[in-house]
């Protein structure tokens, strides 16, 4: 059952139907697309970090679009280790451009979804207005192939992450001139007990006029 203000929709993806949830915000043309963590470890669009990113964008007046990658929940297809999932993300963005009048895109992702969001950004005709990556997977996926990134990025990283190596994330973005890396002390991969400060920092970067 969808929550008030949420609409369950189906978007046609490259491997079939993609299950998605859309909320419509008050700011015309502004949409946040949010990518979930690795399905192999149980990641879905209901993940609490994904939900925190959604609430942050929603509270700023943006419409939001979460979706399950291929093979997750009611989405058709099979897990494709980050390759086909980028195509899924691009299909979702294309749907929004065609059906929702999206003119401003905030693209966000957590862990595996952080890699997918970054990879999708590199294939868009125009870099997203905001790209926010939470604990992005930079080792298990071929993040090096995306570099140098073509636009600004904000990275949220827990200093005690035991799933994605913090040092690998810091190194991956150290030479990106338009990257901001926000470090969260005493914080693990899933931001247990740290979702409120995470929301505050994401709100800051989404509203930064610099």
* CA distance, first residue to last residue: 40 Å
The run of helices and strands is: EEEHEHEHEEHEH
Q: How many helical stretches?
A: 5
Q: Which runs of at least 5 residues are low in confidence (pLDDT < 50)?
A: none
Measured by DSSP, the beta-strand proportion falls in 15-25%
Q: Could you name the CATH homologous superfamily? A: Alpha/Beta hydrolase fold, catalytic domain
Structural class: alpha/beta
How is the topology of this model organized?
Layout: E1 6-13, E2 16-23, E3 30-35, H1 48-59, E4 63-67, H2 84-99, E5 104-110, H3 112-123, E6 130-134, E7 153-158, H4 166-174, E8 179-184, H5 195-207
Parallel strand pairs: 3-4, 3-5, 5-6, 6-7, 7-8
Antiparallel strand pairs: 1-2, 2-4
What does the model show?
With 210 residues, the chain is of the alpha/beta class. The protein has a single domain, classed as Rossmann fold (3-Layer(aba) Sandwich), CATH 3.40.50. 30% of the residues lie in helices and 24% in strands. It is built from 5 helices and 8 strands. The protein has helices at residues 48-59, 84-99, 112-123, 166-174, 195-207; strands spanning 6-13, 16-23, 30-35, 63-67, 104-110, 130-134, 153-158, 179-184. Strands 1-2-4-3-5-6-7-8 form an 8-stranded mixed sheet, sandwiched between helices. Helix 4 (166-174) links the parallel strand 7 and strand 8 (179-184). Helix 1 (48-59) packs across helix 5 and helix 2 packs across helix 3. The longest helix has 16 residues, at 84-99. It is globular, with a radius of gyration of 15 Å. The termini are far apart. 45% of the residues are buried.
């Amino acid at each position: 059952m969808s929550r008030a203000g949420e609409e369950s929709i189906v978007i046609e993806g490259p491997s079939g139907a993609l299950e998605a949830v859309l909320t419509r915000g008050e700011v015309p043309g502004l949409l946040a697309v949010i990518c979930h963590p690795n399905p192999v470890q149980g990641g879905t669009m209901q993940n609490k970090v994904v939900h925190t990113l959604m609430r942050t964008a929603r509270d700023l007046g943006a419409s939001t679009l979460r979706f399950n990658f291929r093979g997750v929940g009611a989405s058709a297809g099979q897990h494709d280790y980050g390759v086909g999932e980028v195509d899924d993300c691009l299909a979702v963005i294309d749907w929004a451009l065609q059906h929702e009048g999206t003119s401003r895109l905030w693209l966000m992702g957590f862990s595996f979804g952080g890699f997918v969001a970054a990879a999708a950004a590199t294939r868009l005709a125009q870099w997203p207005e905001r790209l926010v990556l939470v604990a992005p997977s930079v080792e298990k996926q071929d993040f090096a192939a995306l570099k140098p990134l073509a636009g600004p990025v904000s990275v949220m990283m827990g200093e005690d992450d035991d799933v994605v190596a913090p040092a690998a994330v810091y190194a991956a973005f150290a030479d990106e001139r338009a990257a901001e890396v926000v470090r969260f002390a005493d914080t693990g991969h899933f931001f247990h007990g740290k979702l409120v400060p995470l929301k505050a920092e994401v709100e800051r970067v989404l509203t930064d006029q610099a």
